[in-house]
Design brief:
The protein is α/β, with parallel strands linked by helices. The chain folds into two domains: 167 residues, P-loop containing nucleotide triphosphate hydrolases (Rossmann fold, 3-Layer(aba) Sandwich); 136 residues. Helices cover 54% and strands 7% of the residues. It has 17 helices and five strands. α8 packs across α9, α11 runs antiparallel to α12 and α11 packs across α13. The radius of gyration is 25 Å and the shape is elongated. The chain starts with 10 loop residues before the first helix and ends with a helix. The structure holds zinc ion. The site of zinc ion has 10 residues, from loops.
């Protein structure tokens, strides 16, 4: 079976490399750029295997999976395959990984390992993940390798933020852009990789993922999911207490992560979930069929109740606008508790006023 059988998306890039390898026109350094979580690393891994395969078939971009190149590669023990990236919890790609620790500078690290001759008939293949997290010193020491790459070496650099790379690095690499995956592709990946409990979960997470598998996975984290359930249960109540809801959400957000940036990220998800809730209700009112959100019982009961209000669509429209404002406030660094307090207090008043004016 082809090593690309389980790979989704990026057909154009695959075709480009297929032709390039066929014509033996491979460059020595490539820079893969695109949003996080869309498969750039997986793409580079498959490409690396196909370049190290000793018995490639007719398809230049495929690998046999059996030969003396594929077997050690699949066992993560191929001496000619090198891979580095930013370790979890670190903000920068450590310079040691590129040029060795202080006391052994130049005698270890990726640049040194690339300069060691490959096995007879083989070549060196390196993946540099998170290349956009290199600091200037690291980038400058890596530049020497890019300027005079060792014979028979191919380097794949991976980045999500092109602007964070030194222009001198960028100009030494052939740029390959990757686009977000489609919602259908994300949905299929979530199901194939057993990352979801139900088809409805897959549809929901895919719909909000913006084409990134890692974002979809984030959305499915149990803590975030249970906060979403709490939020939806409250919003569906005939009268909810805005301040009490805000307090519970803030506590949940603080419990998930101590870091402020993470808290803001999760607060943005709560805001986004709220918008989706109102949007789903709006679609439901307009009679449009939407299978993902309509299966959420809370949206259904909320929509049924709202349908009795005069100007219910307009009301939902202003509720969405108010919620979008909260997202802007978080971007402007307004504290999480303050933003949520004022948002849900406003929302609870909006729906309460409507129900008393009936
Ligand atoms: Zn092979």
């Amino acid at each position: 079976m082809s090593i690309w059988a389980s790979f989704r998306g990026h057909a154009e890039q695959r075709e480009m490399f297929r032709r390039t390898i066929q014509r033996r026109r491979l460059s020595q350094a490539y820079l893969f750029v695109g949003p996080q979580g869309i498969g750039k690393h997986q793409f580079a891994l498959r490409l690396a295997q196909s370049l190290l395969c000793r018995e490639p078939g007719a398809d230049s971009i495929d690998a046999c999976g059996q030969c003396s190149g594929c077997k050690p590669f699949l066992a993560k023990a191929h001496p000619d395959f090198l891979s580095i990236g930013c370790p979890p919890g670190k903000r920068e790609l450590p310079i040691e990984l590129l040029v060795g620790p202080n006391e052994r500078r130049g005698q270890e690290g990726l640049c040194h390992d690339l300069s060691v001759a490959p096995l007879p008939g083989s070549r060196k293949v390196a993946i540099v993940d998170d290349a956009d997290t290199m600091n200037e010193t690291s980038a400058n020491s890596f530049l020497k390798t890019l300027e005079e790459p060792p014979d028979r070496a191919v380097i794949f650099m991976i980045a999500s933020n092109l602007d964070a790379l030194l222009p001198t690095i960028r100009s030494r690499c052939q740029l390959v852009r990757f686009s977000p995956l489609s919602t259908d592709e994300i949905e299929a990946l979530l199901v194939e990789q057993n990352l979801v409990q139900s088809a409805a979960d897959a549809k929901f997470a895919a719909g909000l993922s913006e084409g990134s598998l890692s974002t979809a996975q984030q959305l499915l984290e149990p803590e975030l999911s249970s906060l979403r359930s709490l939020l939806y249960a409250q919003l569906a109540l005939p009268q909810f207490s805005g301040l009490s809801l805000s307090k519970q959400l803030t506590e949940g957000i603080v419990k998930i992560a101590a870091e402020t940036s993470e808290q803001r990220r999760n607060c943005q998800w709560m805001i986004r979930f709220t918008i989706e809730f109102f949007r789903a209700a709006l679609w439901r009112l307009s009679g449009e069929y939407i299978d993902a959100q309509a299966t959420i019982a809370e949206v259904e009961s909320f929509a049924q109740r709202i349908a009795l209000f005069p100007d219910s669509s307009e009301l939902l429209g202003t509720a969405i606008e108010r919620t979008v404002d909260a997202s802007i406030h978080i971007d402007q660094s307004v504290p999480v508790p303050l933003t949520l307090d004022s948002l849900f207090d406003d929302l609870s008043r909006k729906f309460r006023m409507q129900s008393s004016s009936r």
